[in-house]
């Protein structure tokens, strides 16, 4: 049991994020993160993966059951939906970097569901605790466009007032003091919402349409008016 002076009581990953680390070192450090209590019951930290030089970064909510077991983001059914939608929108999934706002699987058990682990959304406090990892990934990748997949990712990148139903498919500038560091953000639904939708076809088409907004932004040469050019501190991983 965690004591009163345990690092997780502070709800911040900042002490675990090494300065000047590359992606490999950052991933290794994240494996030992105790920045909030979510690490206690999970199998492992699920860090981001993909092209370290990606122009497009995709941010989801948190790992699911399969991601927690395999240690990789978006390896379940939602990941398959996302890959198909990206390709249809004109973005090569192999040329993206994908991660989650929260790196540990938060879940609960329902008596009627047996031992199955049921997804539970992270709290704003847990989002804030994991923010330093996301900020470090953004700094290293230096993406031109960040796609926020769902409400939780949007809150992590744009603040607690974000509403995906109102702002999906738009181009927004991330708060310069937040994890997105002023980058262009295109919000959309989480691909798992397609799987839950009554009309999956319409939900999927909406996801593709939003991703096309990101594809169009990537097609624009040079830094646009929505963001400042990368400063000297921004690095390509």
TrEMBL record:
Pfam assignment, any one: UDG
Keyword Cell inner membrane: no
Entry keyword set: DNA damage, DNA repair, Hydrolase
InterPro entries in alphabetical order: UDG_Type-4/5, Ura-DNA_glyco_family4, Uracil-DNA_glycosylase-like
Residue span, Uracil-DNA glycosylase-like domain: 47-212
Protein name (database record): UdgX family uracil-DNA binding protein
Organism: Streptomyces niphimycinicus
């Amino acid at each position: 049991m965690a004591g009163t002076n345990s690092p997780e009581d502070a709800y911040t990953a900042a002490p675990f994020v090494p300065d000047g680390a590359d992606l490999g070192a950052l991933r290794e450090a994240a494996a030992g993160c105790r920045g909030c209590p979510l690490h206690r019951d999970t199998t492992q930290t699920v860090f981001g993966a993909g092209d370290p030089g990606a122009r497009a970064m995709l941010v989801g909510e948190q790992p699911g059951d399969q991601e927690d077991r395999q240690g990789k983001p978006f390896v379940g059914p939602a990941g398959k939906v996302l890959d198909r939608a990206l390709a249809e929108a004109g973005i090569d999934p192999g040329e993206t970097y994908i991660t989650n706002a929260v790196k540990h699987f938060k879940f609960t058990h329902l008596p009627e569901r047996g031992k199955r682990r049921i997804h539970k959304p992270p709290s704003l406090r847990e989002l804030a605790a994991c923010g330093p990892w996301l900020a470090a990934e953004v700094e290293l990748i230096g993406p031109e466009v960040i796609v926020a997949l769902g409400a939780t990712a949007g809150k992590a990148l744009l603040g607690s007032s974000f509403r995906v139903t109102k702002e999906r498919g738009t181009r927004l500038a991330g708060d310069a003091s937040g994890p997105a560091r002023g980058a262009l953000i295109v919000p959309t639904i989480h691909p798992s919402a397609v799987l839950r939708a009554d009309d999956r076809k319409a939900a999927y088409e909406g996801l593709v349409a939003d991703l096309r907004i990101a594809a169009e932004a990537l097609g624009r040469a040079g830094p646009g008016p929505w963001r400042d050019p990368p400063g000297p501190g921004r690095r390509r991983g």
